[in-house]
Amino acid sequence: MTTPLPAPLCGIVPPLITPLSARDTLDVSGLERLLERVIGGGVHGLFILGTTGEGPSLSYRLRREVVERACRQTAGRLPVLVGITDTAPAESAALACYAAERGAAAVVLAPPYYQHVAQAELREYLNHLLPQLPLPLMLYNMPALTKVSFELPTVSWAMQQPRIVGIKDSSANMLYFQRLCGLAKQRSDWSVLMGPEELLACAVAAGGHGGVNGGANMFPSLYTALYHAAHNGDAARTRELWSLVLRVAEAIYGVGQYASAGVKGIKCVLACLGVCGGFLEEPFHAFRQPERARIERHLAELLPALESALGAPAA
Questions:
Q1: Structural domain tally of the chain?
Q2: Is residue 67 a part of any domain in this protein?
Q3: Can you state the percent helix, strand and coil of the chain, rounding each to 5?
Q4: Beta partners for 68?
Q5: Is 12 helix (H, G, I), strand (E, B) or coil?
Q6: What is the mean pLDDT of each run of 10 residues along the chain (315 residues)?
Q7: How far is CA 131 from the centre of its chain?
Q8: Which end of the chain is more exposed for a tag (fewer CB within 10 A), N or C?
Q9: Residue 138 — φ and ψ, nearest 5°?
């Protein structure tokens, strides 16, 4: 069963982590618990195999298993978006076709991330790939990892392609994001979604349609509540919840010392909460005991504050 992609897609779309029990091995029960957790938290869609989902680190076999199981369990309750970013266009197209067969609603694509791509080459790449994609496409702007942005003229070109339906921006550049929102006025079905959760409230105020926020793996109801408060113009409630989002980000993402700290922190929190294990695919590893102890201390402080603000247990 497939839930069509809303036009535009609005709200909170967690970039789902991929629960793993060992190398190249899906934690099936952990994935099932995680899916029910985020769906129960009121999210508006699911994004699998993105950066937070370690998509580029997973084998093609495992990526397909994640797609199959996530789509089957979601069973049409929410639209499922599948990351197809790859350095090989044929693999992106093949995964898109598989996702369509399994009931996904859309695919998500960042620029190929090995060779540096010029904007003209990027447009040509998209032009060649689009006819091979059986699902709507959302662009993913992640210059810190891909070395290239979807520059505004390229986004403007993309908006002329009916089957490209939006962009997720993880650049953390609010001026760029505001200009994306200005471009989006040209198409009523075009979505502009914010990646960094610390900027979610600003993004909605600027005209953005919501967020693809990693923290929604841990505390989905916090992020959905913040989105609704910002969307409804409730300034006091937005400030209250935004301060909690900032507190979560500082406490959880500040534990590790490398760029992988965000994914490690999210997985560690979920392990502490009994949702799934903290295993990461190589070249990364789960937090060791000292880092896990810090996460546990932060959780002990965060959970009562979240429960008080949300009126329900955050875990």
A1: 1
A2: yes
A3: 50, 10, 40
A4: none
A5: strand
A6: 89 98 98 98 98 97 98 97 97 98 98 94 98 98 96 98 98 98 97 98 98 98 98 98 98 91 97 96 94 97 96 78
A7: 25
A8: N
A9: -110, 135
CATH number at residue 62: 3.20.20.70
- Regarding beta strands 191-194 and 11-12, do their DSSP bridges make them parallel or antiparallel, or are they unpaired? unpaired
Q: Which helix (H) or strand (E) holds 245?
A: helix 235-253
Residue 268 within any structural domain of the chain: no
Cross-strand pairs, 137? 107, 164
Token pair recorded at residue 39: 């769906």
Distance (Å, whole) CA 223 – CA 160: 32
Cα distance between residue 7 and residue 5, in whole Å? 6
Compute the CA torsion angle 132, 136, 141, 146 (nearest 10 deg).
Answer: -20
Cα dist from 64 to 26, 86, 129, whole Å:
11, 14, 20
If you write DSSP's letter for every residue of 125-188 in order, what string do you get? HHHHHGGG-SS-EEEEE-HHHHS----HHHHHHHTTSTTEEEEEE-S--HHHHHHHHHHHTT-T
Which neighbouring-strand residues pair with 41? none
Token pair of 276 as six digits: 């799934």
SS3 203: helix
Helix (H) / strand (E) containing 108: strand 106-109
Contact 45, 78 (CB under 8 A): yes
